[in-house]
Design a protein that fits this description.
Helix content: 10-25%
Distance between the termini: 78 Å
Order of helices and strands: HHEEEEHEEEEEEEHEEEEEEEEEEEHEE
Number of helices: 5
Number of strands: 24
Length: about 400
């Protein structure tokens, strides 16, 4: 009996049959996958190519927006754009894209909505093809000097006294003709003492309509773009300290006030001094949250600041300092000092708090505000053209 049960003859055939029965379904499954996997892989490849082509359309639109005077560029302000989403642009043999540039639905005159659709391969009556749609918002970081009507633009009242000279003469064709005023205000301009105002269009223009300042006013989206630039450069002063910037007192809480002096010099580039809550009046911020910045003696390391200083509030200059670029205050701009100071470029004060902007040079001092197209543009320190608004890049179903 023991020898009978130990006999394994005849087992090979049943085992072979059982193995074959198990392997046949696996072979059929692999055979099926060998047919479907190349199709799936091809679809994935086309989808990836389509998304890349859609991104190419987005970059093409940004290029066209940033070069309005070049062949193929888009005008600013936007009017009858050729990029209407109906023209297919071929990219090699891979496929191509269509792109549409439209005014921003929020009404921001400096923002655009870009819709780009990539196709791989090109759309046609035959063959399989994939498409992907990308939508993003972009905003212009404008060159304010090109559209500015003045050397000192004040949306409110202006008081000029003492040894002050404001000159709006434009000598650079890049900023248009010589048709700018020295001062341009919505309310009265009061001039006292030896102050002199001059310009190609005249010394001053008073009682101007508020919408005339749209040419130099930075939109909320443009302010967001400049805020992002300052954050990347380490020149942002606002909520999030110390990560967002450095307070002059070394504190970790942003109170909305900062002093630039010899101990805390003003860096070149895009300097952004923000409100206490990081918002602005255009986006629901309260007037009590506005920031304040003061420039004291030796605020710049070599006595000259180069770039843009954006204050979401008021800017006060209390000592002689030479600023080359854009000086932009959402509230008032004040200069009261005995030293020699100058602004070469463009100065803008929006006076949201209804306090007059005051430029006064005491005895022994002097202040010069001179329009300069190159300095107003940031002289290579400020990127211009259109940039994506953070958080708006998205892929959507069409």
């Amino acid at each position: 009996m023991a020898m009978h049960f130990a006999d394994e003859r005849g087992v090979a055939l049943p085992m072979a049959v059982m193995s074959l029965a198990l392997l046949v379904p696996l072979m059929l499954a692999f055979a099926s996958l060998s047919v479907s996997e190349p199709i799936i892989a091809a679809n994935q490849l086309r989808a990836t190519q389509a998304r890349t082509l859609a991104d190419s359309g987005l970059q093409y639109a940004l290029w066209a927006l940033s070069r309005p005077t070049s062949p193929g560029g888009l005008p600013f302000p936007l009017s009858a754009p050729p990029l209407d989403g109906r023209t297919f642009i071929t990219v090699g043999v891979t496929g191509g894209f269509t792109v549409q540039v439209a005014a921003h639905e929020g009404g921001d005159p400096q923002a655009r909505t870009i819709t780009a659709v990539g196709w791989a391969p090109a759309p046609g009556p035959f063959g399989m093809r994939a498409h992907r749609q990308i939508v993003a918002d972009a905003v212009a970081v404008p060159h304010p000097g090109a559209r500015a009507p003045c050397a000192l633009c004040v949306r409110g009242a202006l008081d000029v006294r003492g040894n002050v000279a404001i000159d709006g003469t434009n000598r650079d064709p890049a900023c248009g003709n010589d048709t700018k005023f020295g001062a341009f205000t919505t309310d009265a301009t009061t001039v006292g003492g030896p102050a002199v105002l001059s310009g190609g269009a005249g010394g001053s223009a008073e009682q101007q309509p508020a919408d005339a300042f749209d040419a130099v006013k930075l939109s909320p989206a443009a302010l967001d773009a400049l805020r992002a630039i300052a954050l990347r450069s380490g020149t942002y002063y606002g909520p999030g300290l110390p990560n967002g910037g450095l307070a002059s007192d070394g504190g970790t809480t942003w109170q909305g006030r900062i002093v630039f002096d010899a101990a805390n010099p003003l860096p070149d580039g895009v300097v952004f001094i923000d409100t206490t809550d990081g918002g602005s009046l255009d986006t629901g911020g309260a007037i009590t949250s506005l920031a304040g910045a003061r420039l004291d003696a030796v605020a710049a390391t070599d006595g000259i600041f180069r770039g843009w200083i954006i204050v979401n509030g008021s800017l006060e200059i209390t000592a002689g300092l030479h600023l080359r670029g854009l000086v932009y205050a959402v509230d008032t701009l004040s200069y009261r000092a005995t030293g020699e100071g100058s602004i070469e470029g463009l100065a803008v004060a929006l006076n949201v708090g209804d306090t007059p902007t005051r430029i006064e040079a005491a005895a022994g001092g002097g202040m010069r505000i001179t329009f300069d197209c190159r300095h107003a543009g940031g002289e290579g320190l400020v990127p211009h053209g259109f940039a994506l608004i953070p958080g708006t890049y998205r892929e959507e179903r069409d």
